[in-house]
Specification:
The chain is an alpha/beta fold. The protein folds into two domains: 202 residues, Quinone Oxidoreductase, Chain A, domain 1 (Alpha-Beta Complex); 135 residues, NAD(P)-binding Rossmann-like Domain (Rossmann fold, 3-Layer(aba) Sandwich), CATH 3.40.50.720. Helix content is 27%, strand content 24%. The strands form three sheets. Strands 3, 4, 5, 6, 7, 14 and 15 form a seven-stranded mixed beta sheet that branches. It has a six-stranded parallel beta sheet with strand order 10-9-8-11-12-13, sandwiched between helices. The two termini are 17 Å apart. Belongs to the zinc-containing alcohol dehydrogenase family. It comes from Streptomyces camponoticapitis. InterPro entries: ADH-like_C (IPR013149), ADH-like_N (IPR013154), ADH_Zn_CS (IPR002328), ER (IPR020843), GroES-like_sf (IPR011032), NAD(P)-bd_dom_sf (IPR036291). Its cofactor is Zn(2+).
Length: 348
């Protein structure tokens, strides 16, 4: 088959590699019908995630058809159309019993495109299938469904739930890329008083307005002051970091009110300064986290019911064999205007 293979920092190519095969009774092999590129994939290519070995097939999000299932798989069978979650879970270890699937100790967690071959390929092996793939109804499109493999559960769980967004809150989302836009969308499920989006790109700030932001601020124009002005000097109840650079994290700590929450979603490749000389007295809660995808079934139900807007996030579509071109467009989002790119198998 063909797959996108990492060769080292800044180096990858669409190569011919061996087809995946079942290794355990709980595995399935899925034919990939739709796949997308995540900001985390760009971090991997930059070398920010050094545990990804050269030779690994990248990608951790997909929609496709089960073509082979191990003897122990009970929830799906060959021919079923499924969502491949970015997180796999053994379902038995301490963390899985707490629904902290991202921390799975039984060979799960974030493994696809990280510790084992991933989804940016024609076929992918998915371990622990009963906990890690989700059957899809016929009324849900590939393009919509693939957005629930990672960005929507990540934004909802790591941003909105960890940040404890409540009705009437002022929520600041720093970063209006795909994760930030999904955070704006899912924050609005809790009826916040206002949502403020911060980004350096005017196009992404306009997208933030379309996804429900009540106010926007350019990151180069003192957004902390805007937040203070809009909150009578108090600050935001919740600040969600959705970029993964030190400046955006530090901005969140400057905009949050005393007693507020900073929810970090971004993947950080460099240290960020924690200004405890300012924060120690403010009763601020800071959370980090890897998505668990425990919310995926609920979000899929909302999607099927037409209650979760997703499709306008997809700005570019490609054939599966245009993987390298798609990476170029996605990595140059400031010029291309890309939010989310989706690649689909011919005929899917």
């Amino acid at each position: 088959m063909r797959a996108l293979v990492l060769h080292g920092p800044g180096e990858s190519s669409w190569d011919e590699v061996p087809d995946p095969a079942l290794k355990d009774g709980g595995d399935v092999v899925v034919r990939v019908d739709a796949v997308t590129i995540c900001g985390t994939d760009l971090h991997i290519l930059k070398g920010d995630v050094p545990e990804v070995d050269p030779g690994t097939v990248l990608g951790h999000e997909a929609v496709g058809e089960v073509v082979e299932a191990g003897d122990d798989v009970r929830s799906v069978r060959p021919g079923d159309r499924v969502l491949v979650s970015c997180i796999t879970a053994c379902g038995r270890c301490r963390f899985c019993r707490e629904a902290r699937y991202g921390q799975c100790l039984g060979g799960g967690g974030w493994v696809l495109g990280h510790l084992i071959d991933g989804t940016q390929a024609e076929y992918v092996r998915v371990p622990h299938a009963d906990m890690s793939v989700h059957p899809l109804s016929s009324g849900v499109s590939n393009q919509d469904a693939v957005l629930l493999a990672d960005i929507f559960p990540t934004a909802y769980e790591v941003g909105v739930l960890n940040g404890r967004v409540r009705p009437g809150d002022t929520v600041v989302v720093v970063g209006a890329g795909p994760i930030g836009l999904a955070a704006i969308t899912t924050a609005r499920l809790f009826s916040p008083g206002r949502v403020i989006a911060v980004d350096l790109s005017p196009a992404r700030l306009e997208a933030a307005r379309q996804f429900g932001a009540d106010a926007v601020a350019n990151g180069s124009e003192d957004p902390a002051r805007l937040v203070r002005d809009l909150t009578d000097g108090t600050g935001a109840d919740v600040a969600i970091e959705a970029v993964g650079v030190p400046e955006s994290f530090e901005l969140c700590t400057r905009t949050v009110r005393a007693g507020g929450h900073v929810a970090n979603i971004g993947v950080h490749g460099k240290p960020a300064v924690l200004h405890l000389e300012d924060l120690w007295i403010k009763d601020v809660t800071i959370t980090t986290g890897l998505v668990d995808t425990s919310s995926t079934p609920m979000l899929l139900g909302m999607l099927a019911a037409g209650r979760l807007p997703t499709s306008s996030l997809v700005t570019h579509t490609f054939g599966l064999d245009q993987m390298e071109e798609a990476y170029g467009v996605f990595s140059a989002a400031a010029d291309s205007g890309a939010l989310k790119v989706v690649l689909e198998r011919a005929g899917a």
